[in-house]
């Protein structure tokens, strides 16, 4: 091992020219809660590690670690990271943190997971965690992307759940998958925020509007998306929670946008 905190890439799958997923070996000592993120990266040209925050997309029981990544053409890290191959090494700082964890929510009946784009990553972990299915009667996974192909990674995870040896039976009929697109035709069009405001999502699923007594939510997307969903959740009477102060919803940025 030549890199500090080096882990070896075990597989890579490209989904679109902007999205790919990869798996790496897991440090034996790494413990994390599903939904948390770590710093990963490559050695920079200046000999210093070039690190970025990445949600762990695999569940906490998995032997390997999975990540779901954007490819930013001129991005310092992902312009290079997108070319990794099995056998290559990446740097992984084994210090998981984050707010999208069950501990930050009070007990509830229904869990909403709201994602846009690569914001699906922490939910790929949580959806494969037995705790998620143990704690809730219903789990609603919404994923909004511009184009249909950008939904594929999430759809594959969702479709794998029922046949999963560990959690398949627990999932049962509890899961509602609600993918939407905004810039390419698909069975359900529109921003999830618009579909909440109009009440369409509740009519589609056949459930009452958001209610702080039963509904819990986790949010992960762009800053603009997070702010808009947060406003809708607060309007419905849900309060933002944290590890130290659990409440009805939690939010995390899927990336730090320009000027933020
Ligand atoms: P950067 O210089 O970091 O970013 C360049 C620009 O690209 C940004 O200003 C932004 O406009 C855009 N951008 C960056 N990341 C994204 C993204 N994910 N989706 C859309 N646009 C983006 N990225 C992932 O791909 N997967 C993850 O699981 C993930 N988890 C994150 C968790 C947290 C808590 C945070 C803060 C960020 C996370 N990111 C994730 C973003 C990641 O840290 C990097 O920004 C991303 O890998 C691009 O790195 P870069 O050096 O190539 O470009
Ligand atoms: P739209 O196409 O209407 O902008 P992005 O790639 O810009 O991060 O967006 C990913 C998805 O999230 C797109 O479908 C986009 O819809 C949607 N989106 C972006 N901003 C918001 C927001 N503030 N509220 C709801 N959805 C949003």
UniProtKB/TrEMBL annotation:
A Pfam family per the record: FAD_binding_6
Cofactor: FAD
Enzyme Commission code(s) on record: 1.18.1.2
Residues spanning the membrane: none
Protein keywords: FAD, Flavoprotein, NADP, Oxidoreductase
GO biological process: cellular response to oxidative stress; heme catabolic process
Family annotation (InterPro entries): Cbr1-like_FAD-bd_dom (IPR008333), FAD-bd_FR_type (IPR017927), FNR_bac (IPR033892), FNR_nucleotide-bd (IPR039261), FNR_type-1 (IPR051930), Riboflavin_synthase-like_b-brl (IPR017938)
UniProt keyword Acetylation present: no
Entries under SUPFAM superfamilies matching the protein: Ferredoxin reductase-like, C-terminal NADP-linked domain (SSF52343), Riboflavin synthase domain-like (SSF63380)
Protein name, as recorded: ferredoxin--NADP(+) reductase
Organism listed in the record: Rubellimicrobium mesophilum DSM 19309
């Amino acid at each position: 091992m030549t890199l500090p905190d080096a882990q070896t890439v075990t597989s890579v799958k490209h989904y679109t020219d902007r999205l790919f997923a990869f798996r790496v070996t897991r440090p034996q000592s790494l413990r994390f809660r599903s939904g948390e993120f770590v710093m990963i990266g490559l050695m920079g040209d200046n000999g210093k590690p070039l690190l970025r925050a990445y949600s762990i997309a695999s569940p906490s029981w998995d032997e390997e670690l999975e990540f779901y990544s954007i490819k930013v053409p001129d991005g310092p890290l992902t312009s290079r990271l997108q070319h990794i191959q099995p056998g290559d090494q990446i740097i992984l700082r084994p210090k998981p943190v984050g707010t999208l964890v069950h501990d930050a929510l009070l007990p509830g009946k229904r869990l909403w997971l709201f994602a846009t784009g690569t914001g699906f990553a922490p939910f790929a972990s949580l959806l494969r965690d037995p705790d998620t299915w143990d704690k809730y009667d219903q789990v609603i996974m919404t994923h909004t992307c511009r184009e249909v192909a950008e939904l594929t990674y999430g759809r594959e995870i969702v479709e794998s759940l029922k046949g999963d040896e560990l959690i398949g039976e627990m999932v049962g009929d509890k899961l509602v998958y609600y993918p939407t697109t905004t810039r390419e035709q698909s069975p359900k069009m529109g921003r999830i925020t618009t579909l909440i405001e109009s009440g369409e999502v509740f009519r589609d699923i056949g459930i009452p509007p958001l209610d702080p007594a039963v509904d819990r939510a986790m949010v992960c997307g762009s800053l603009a998306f997070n702010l808009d969903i947060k406003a809708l959740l607060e309007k419905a009477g849900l309060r933002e929670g944290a590890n130290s102060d659990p409440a009805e919803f939690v939010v995390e940025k899927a990336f730090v946008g320009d000027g933020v």
